[in-house]
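Good morning C.,

I know you're traveling, so I'll keep this short. The sequence:
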Amino acid sequence: MAEDLKINQGTKIENYKTLIPQIVALIDGEPDLIANLANIAASLKEQFGWLWVGFYLVKEQELVLGPFQGPVACTRIKKGRGVCGTSWQQAKTLIVPDVEKFPGHIACSSLSRSEIVIPVIRRNEVVAVLDVDSTALDAFDAADKEYLEHTISLIEWH
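The tokens, ready to paste straight into the viewer:
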């Protein structure tokens, strides 16, 4: 298991290409889901310096806060509420360039300006979402969508 990250200072795509193999090494052979989610969130936050990176887990028809890195966060989110709840409801990745313009945005932190949420889908059902917030407007694009979707595909869900 790797215990130190090599933080890359290249382009966004180079940074993902350097980070993803390190994430694979971190979670390889580790059966504990929560430990793996925690290390993935920490790795992404360390590499990219985003405001908030974390997971919400679907539990009894709500998204419940899981492992994360960043300021304190909303603990529970209902289906269809905010960016996370909408991503869950629609079972698709949402990129929000300006959270102030997203109908029903839940402001867990006033510092958040843009957001990307990726649903984790197993057996045709959303089981969690990966939520990433940035202090910059329009921080996320198709490259983030591609590499973050790939990252969550690496997780073993039991």
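Safe travels,
E.
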